[in-house]
Amino acid sequence: MKKIIVLLIVLFIICGCSNENVKNEVNVLNWSSYIPYSIIDDFERETGIKVNYGTYSSNEELLAKISSSNEGVYDLIFPSDYMIDLMIGKDMIEKIDIKELENFKNINPMFLNQDFDKNNEYSLPFLAATSVIAVNRNNIKDEINSYNDLLNSKYKNNIVLIDDQRIIVGMSLLANNYDMNDIDKNHIEEGKKWLLKLNNNVKAFDSDSPKTFLITNEVDIGVIWNAEAIIAKNYNKNIEIVYPKDGFALSLDNYAIVKCSRNKKNAYKFIDYLLREDINKKITEEYPYINTTISGINMKTEELLNVLKNSTYVKNIGSSISLYDKVWAQIK
Amino acid sequence: MKKEQSMFKFIFTFPVLVYTFILILLPLLYILFLSFCKSDSYGGIIYTFTLSNYLNIFDITYIKMFIKSSLIAILATFICILISYPFALVLRTKSKHIQNLCTKLIMVPFLTNSLIRTYGWIILLRKNGIINTALINSGIIYTPLSLMYNRIGIIIGMVYTLLPFMLLPVCSSVLEIDNNIIEAAKDLGASKIQVFKNIILPQTLSGVFNGSLMVFMPAIGYFFITDILGGGKIMIIGNLIKNQFLTARNWPFGSAIAIFLIIITIILIKIYKRLGGKMDDLGGF
Predict the structure, then answer these.
(1) Number of DSSP helices (H) and strands (E) in chain A, helices first
(2) What is the distance in angstroms between the Cα of B62 and the nearest Cα belonging to chain A?
(3) Nearest 5°: phi and psi at A40?
(4) Do the beta carbons of residue B156 and residue B121 sit within 8 Å?
(5) CA of B76 vs chain A CAs: smallest distance (Å)
(6) Whether the Cβ atoms of residue A232 and residue A134 lie closer than 8 Å to each other
(7) Boundaries of every domain in chain B
């Protein structure tokens, strides 16, 4: 038994930055349903680099995966805005060298130099998403342009919400004219009361596929990500997408290279490939998030300006997240 | 000779020992250790001793959630007993062949992943799902029933997923009863109710308790059922633990709740032993 323990300890000690990998591969960890698999196959065929592709479904899951694995296990990841901020703070990601990227020029400057990484030293924009209200106009005729409109008792059991405490508690803060990232106890308490009122109208919280609820007529209203709303609209053209006037959440997912990556060159090649005009277009054709390149832009400039102006990033609020977590436990 | 035998024993038990040590005992100890640590604002762990995670559990919000979870789990357990016990009693009267076949059939659902089976229920239960469509088309109801995205959906899911864990121990304890004893009781003039109360029930209680434990504990923790069939509207302890690890970034608090659940399990087993249950019966079927 002693020998095993010694062996385990030795295994734990042997980790840390080591040299470039000899194998021609790249280890990518990305959101689920974000890049069509055909694109990865094409990249492998074109370059001969093997892509080891894994997925995650929340920023926190990504954080847990990176911090619990040895350095060098993952090369390329796609954290959102606040997670970039957090990962820079924890020294988990490398600086990005834009000279390695031929297609850097294709990135839409509107998405560069954001608050969480002022000069894009560590990250480059990949895709963006906003939370929107989707309304099935076949069944709902009333005017809906703010969150408070959702409190109408007519909509009992008729709303689906994203199952995400930051977005939903944030929504309740916006509805009460506070900032989405407010950490004032009293403001959050007000938000909680608002959510308890809304609760009667909520049929379900779902992050995996809230569009299904709208497509199958299970509900008529959803506060969901724009890409989900667009896919639902493809099934039912009477679904209207509303940008609430109280404001809404913007989430920007970014390319980032993990500290001590052993396949940096290949990671750059993969980023460069995804930034290519034809490839980038394919991604947002299949998953209609907001394209952040110049060539692939899939939103009218006016709409995009409006989105960027009225939206707020979810920010890293440190230990105050426990306040949000408690509200979450109280409304469910 | 003797040495050779112990060598054999060692070779055969070694993989199991390693497995239990590395995959069960070590992680559990790590969780226990974590539950006394603090978490920093980045979701990291600060290695200073604190009891605050355990004290946090007794916050009114979480106590309410414990009660809510327990009620759901107790109801699911109770329904499982109501289904399993009569089934076992009927099965007793059938031939060995049918008994074997039925117990094997109970195992069949295990061949498919429980998550997929849970998704299958959506197709049956939703507003324009198979059950509602059938009921409306046959004129029995006019507006669709709310069968899911509420407590009913959760109970259906829990009972369906966990029923085999009740059926198997209850069946094995009911089938084990010696027929001669029942015959003797009847010969001595016992009524059917007396036979059930004095002979069948006492001999099968351990099976029922065993099954109850194996239904109740997972029913507190199966967060995917509340997420899918409850529409994420109701949180049980399992969701709370999951949230601490995945969204609230508070691993120590999540660990403390997990340890708290283990303590509850140990207490339940202690009660079981007090009531005269044997540990062997808990071992399985």
Answers:
(1) 12, 11
(2) 8
(3) -65, -40
(4) yes
(5) 20
(6) yes
(7) 58-282
Phi–psi pair at A236, nearest 5 degrees: -135, 105
Residues 6+ apart with CB under 8 A from B51: B36
Give Cα separations from B159 to A233, B73, B162, B165, B166 (angstroms): 36, 9, 5, 10, 10
DSSP conformation class of A221: E
Sign of the CA dihedral running B24, B30, B34, B39: negative
Closest-approach residue (CA) in chain B for A219: B127
The verdict on a CB contact (< 8 Å) between B127 and A216 is: yes
Task: Collect all residues of chain B within an 8 Å Cβ-Cβ radius of residue A157.
Answer: 146, 149
Distance CA B19, CA B16 (A): 5
Torsion of CA B91, B96, B101, B107, to 10 degrees: 70
Span B4-25, pLDDT tens digits: 778 888 888 888 889 989 999 9
Say which CATH topology domain B58-282 has: MetI-like fold (1.10.3720)
Report the C-alpha gap between A80 and B218 in whole angstroms: 34
Q: Residue A19: what pLDDT?
A: 63
Yes or no: say if B63 and A330 are a contact pair by the CB < 8 Å rule: no
The yes-or-no verdict on residue A13 having pLDDT over 90 is no
For the stretch A312-321, pLDDT in tens is 999 988 888 8
- A78, A255 Cβ separation under 8 angstroms: yes
Interatomic CA distance for residues B56 and B53, integer angstroms: 5
Mean residue pLDDT across chain A: 90
- Per DSSP, A70 falls in state -
Residue A332 to residue B62, Cβ atoms within 8 A: no
Residue B221 to chain A, least CA–CA distance (Å): 15
Is-contact A91 A63, C-beta < 8 A?
no
> In angstroms, rounded to a whole number, what is the distance separating the alpha carbons of residues A289 and A117?
21
Length of chain A: 332
B39 vs A204: CB contact, 8 Å cut-off? no
3-state secondary structure B92-144: HCCCHHHHHHHHHHHHHHHHCCHHHHHHHHHHHHCCCCHHHHHHHHCCCCCCC
Contact B247 A58 (CB under 8 A): yes
Most confident of A56-60, A113-117, A206-210: A113-117
Residue pair B256/B35 in contact (Cβ under 8 Å)? The answer is: yes
Interface A-B: count of C-beta contacts within 8 A = 86
pLDDT at residue A8 tops 60:
no
Please tell me the distance from the alpha carbon of residue B154 to that of residue B261, in angstroms, as a whole number: 20
Distance CA A292, CA A126 (A): 6
Q: B160 CB contacts (<8 Å, ≥6 apart)?
A: B117, B121
| CA distances, A103 to each of A134, A267, B87, B112 (Å) | 35, 14, 68, 46
Q: What domains sit in chain A, N to C, each tagged with a CATH number?
A: 23-127+252-300 (3.40.190.10), 129-249+311-331 (3.40.190.10)
